Amino acid sequence: MFATAPLRIVAVSAGLSSPSSTRLLADRLAEATRERLTADQDRPVEVRVVELRDLAVSVANHLVTGFPPADLRDAIDAVTGADGLIAVSPVFTASYSGLFKSFFDVLDPTALTGKPVLIAATGGTPRHSLVLDHAMRPLFSYLRAVTLPTSVYAASEDWGAPGDEYTEGLPARIRRAGGELASAVTGRAVSGASRAATPDDGEDAVVPFEQQLAALRTS
Predict the structure, then answer these.
(1) How many whole angstroms separate alpha carbon 37 and alpha carbon 184?
(2) Given Cys at both, which of 23, 89, 201, 213 links 14, Cβ 3.0 to 4.6 Å?
(3) What is the pLDDT of residues 76-120, one digit of tens each?
(4) CA 86 from chain center: how many Å?
(5) H helices, E strands: number in the chain
(6) Which residue, 148, 196, 208, is CA-closest to 174?
(7) How far is CA 117 from the centre of its chain?
(8) Which of 75, 21, 20, 35 is closest to 181 using CA atoms?
(9) CA distance 169 to 180
(10) pLDDT, tens only, 21-51
């Protein structure tokens, strides 16, 4: 009997302080995802949090030299090998932090293709919540990740505040987002196993753009 490989959830936290609300939100989203995965299936679940503040110098060195130090290489391997990714950044100047962007800049552009990603952000005021849709979602769309419908923004006033009849409180949003990521991860694991068991019939082959243009010219 073969041991079942664990599902790997990796959370990337770009918080700069210690402790930080960004790391706290990453931890809570990871725990909500783990709880749903554990409740829904029997496979073990591994959760890891990557703290970008500890990798800032290594990220800068990689951008300059093109070679990742060992600690950054380990973090990159964890992120690209995860079954599900949680990405959390503080808001700086109405966008994600420079450290957050720099880390994802050093990834191979295709490394996150098809990977379920839950995006989240923290800030001092609710006015910056649109950063999720005008900055973070386009970033992961460019990287061809599968960004989940529910994103989570936590302003300072959200911590410990209950929801009302119009807006879910932060704990409810965290549970909903974690549930979505868990569903995406298990669905991806099943579909990946199905693809491995089914011969490639060529239907998903990518036709180069130049070849498509040539076909138009001769038609």
Answers:
(1) 10
(2) 89
(3) 999 999 999 999 999 998 899 999 999 999 999 999 999 999 999
(4) 4
(5) 8, 7
(6) 148
(7) 3
(8) 35
(9) 17
(10) 999 999 999 999 999 999 988 889 999 999 9
For residue 81, give Cα distances in angstroms to 2, 53, 111. 21, 21, 9
Domains of the chain: 7-218 (3.40.50.360)
Q: What pLDDT is recorded for position 197? A: 40
Q: CB within 8 A of 90, min separation 6: which ones?
A: 14, 15, 16, 20, 21, 22, 96, 97, 121, 122, 123
pTM check: above 0.70: yes
Task: Judge contact between 34 and 9, C-beta under 8 A.
Answer: yes
Higher pLDDT, 196 or 62: 62
Q: What token pair was written down for 37? A: 């995965």
Tokens of 36: 């749903």
3-state SS assignment for residue 215: helix
